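Title: Request for sanity check on Large ribosomal subunit protein bL21 prediction

Description:
We are preparing a figure and want to confirm that the structure record we downloaded matches what your pipeline produces today. Could someone re-run it with the sequence below and paste the raw structure tokens into this thread? We only need the token string, no images.
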Amino acid sequence: MYAIVRTGGKQYQVATGDTLRVEKLKGEVGETVELSDVLLVADGENIRVGVPAVEGAKVVAKIVEQGKAKKVLVFKKKKRKGYRVMRGHRQMFTALSIQEIM
């Protein structure tokens, strides 16, 4: 059984027992989170597709980690002008462990 959920402007295919990193969600480590924006639920031959979301479907996940991803360096330069800018960015994330698909 798997589902496709939307969170943080992105879509993820999840199954029970999976661990995934999503955009930062509110909550502490150990708390449970319900992802109610479920776009598709598939259980063998039985597939339910939502328009845009499946009615009554939800995914229950447990927060495993709150953290920052590795640093991404952004370098800008304009030739012959002496313009050089180096910036870094670390995106906040939440690691989720999928407990149940309903």
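Thanks, this matches our download. Residues 2-101 form one domain.
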